């Protein structure tokens, strides 16, 4: 349940990039992108940071399940979706792990701005979004997850993260609930 947003809250948009959104998802990607854009617009209106994250590789190491080699997907794979309206003031983070904090300077950038809370959206719920939320929580940020602005290729992973993991990492709410909190906290 969503209770509040800190005065310095940032929006983190995970992996809404050209090469990823072509994948099959449990929920249609169009509404996820639309809700994320509504959140982006609201955060910008209130002068709050917007972080756009893309993935351009994978963590090294062996796994039992073969991983796709992102580097061979070609030009444009890592491009942020134009529908998100990337602005020069946005923070762009390119990651090579599931989470946006592990191998980047995102934590330092946010803490320099005085950010104490993050709202996370994007794909995939059970990997990139969850890993980013876990890492944010572990770095001491208050975490909010916009559950209607994310999806996963696997419905069971999406549902498990939302029902079991996210309530242990922070608060959950819809994009419209988050936008309403943004509007009422400044009135």
From TrEMBL:
Report keywords, A-Z.
Hydrolase
List the SUPFAM superfamilies hit by this protein, alphabetically. Answer: Isochorismatase-like hydrolases
Q: Where is the Isochorismatase-like domain?
A: 9-176
Molecular functions (GO terms): hydrolase activity
What Pfam families does the record point to? Isochorismatase
Q: Check the record and name the InterPro entries matching this protein.
A: Isochorismatase-like_dom (IPR000868), Isochorismatase-like_hydrls (IPR050272), Isochorismatase-like_sf (IPR036380)
Q: What is this protein called?
A: Isochorismatase family protein
Q: Which organism is it from?
A: Sphingomonas paeninsulae
């Amino acid at each position: 349940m969503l209770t509040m947003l800190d005065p310095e809250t940032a929006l983190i948009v995970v992996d809404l990039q050209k090469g990823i959104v072509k994948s099959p998802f449990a929920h249609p990607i169009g509404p996820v992108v639309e809700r994320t854009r509504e959140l982006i617009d609201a955060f910008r209106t209130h002068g709050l940071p917007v972080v756009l994250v893309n993935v351009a590789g994978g963590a090294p190491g062996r796994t039992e399940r073969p991983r796709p080699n992102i580097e061979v997907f070609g030009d444009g794979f890592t491009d942020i979706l134009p529908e998100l309206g990337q602005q020069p003031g946005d923070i762009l983070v390119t990651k090579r792990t599931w989470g946006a904090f592990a191998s980047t300077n995102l934590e330092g950038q946010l803490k320099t701005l005085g950010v104490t809370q993050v709202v996370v959206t994007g794909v995939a719920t059970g990997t990139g979004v969850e890993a980013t939320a876990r890492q944010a929580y572990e770095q001491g940020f208050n975490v909010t997850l916009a559950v209607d602005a994310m999806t996963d290729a696997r419905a069971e992973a999406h549902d498990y993260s939302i029902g079991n993991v996210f309530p242990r990492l922070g608060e959950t709410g819809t994009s419209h609930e988050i936008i309403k909190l943004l509007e009422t906290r400044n009135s």
